[in-house]
Amino acid sequence: YPGILIVSQDGEEASYFCICRAATAHYPCPKCLVHWSQLDLVTESFELCTLENMCSVLEQASCAHSKISKEKIL
Fold it and tell me: What's the distance, CA 16 to chain centroid?
């Protein structure tokens, strides 16, 4: 008999199930650097999330002077 997959999840489990980051993340896509406010632009191309990109972002955030500016970068 064919089976039907029924999944009951809360928000956090659903984000792991669809391979997304948390719903409150500024950049929820694990593959590219698309901001949450631009997720509806499915025909656009965004910068890929690579090791080099993430290292430069972390370096910029570590050089920032205030917690607010660090949060804005991250």
Answer: 12
